[in-house]
Amino acid sequence: MDRIIRLKEFLAENPEDSFVQHALALEYVKLQNEPEARNLFENILIRDPDYIGSYYHLAKLLERIYEKEAAIQWYEKGMSKAKEKGDLHAYNELQSAYEDLVY
To answer: What class, spelled out in words, does domain 2-102 have in CATH?
Structure first.
């Protein structure tokens, strides 16, 4: 919980910091607090669609809560953005997870 408190303090200083929001979302994932994690990941991607790492984690979260179609959509958006940005590593990770889910 100390990490969550510290991350929230950082966010109070800079509420639009995608890195801190992503880190906080990952802490919520560890605690299995899917609604909070999902909200943070979605907010990041709405505000900062170039924050590529959040696509993977959001889609994985959606897989875990049995929202397959939503997960597929986020994987596809992430692959598109990664390709656009030339981030082949992220693209390959997203594609691999997508294929594991779809096929």
So the answer is: mainly alpha
